[in-house]
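tool=predict chain=A
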Amino acid sequence: MDRPALTLDADATPDVVWRRLASSVSSLQAVRYTGSQWGPVNDGLPTSGVFGTPRITSDASGRSVVVIAVDRSTSSSFACDLNVMRLENGTWQGRNRCTRSRSRQAVPA
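tool=predict ok
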């Protein structure tokens, strides 16, 4: 687990997110406390390319919102999405993306 982040929703239910690295694949993981145990809430989260530390907070309606950077680079370009997702009925919704990209250029010899 890499630097977990915690928030409370409108009902004071805790949600925790963290970046997980397994077999060189970096994904975003989340759990929610159900009153007696922690359970996964991973539907809709990025499953690869996650980097940096995720941030989580609650919006004005008390729903949990997570922000994470996702690498979308290819062999010909660098690209990064900044994803903002809200937890709705147990699923992360609304991948609003702010994308930055540029072409890879050969390095002069």
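The chain has one domain: 2-98. The two ends are 41 Å apart (CA to CA).
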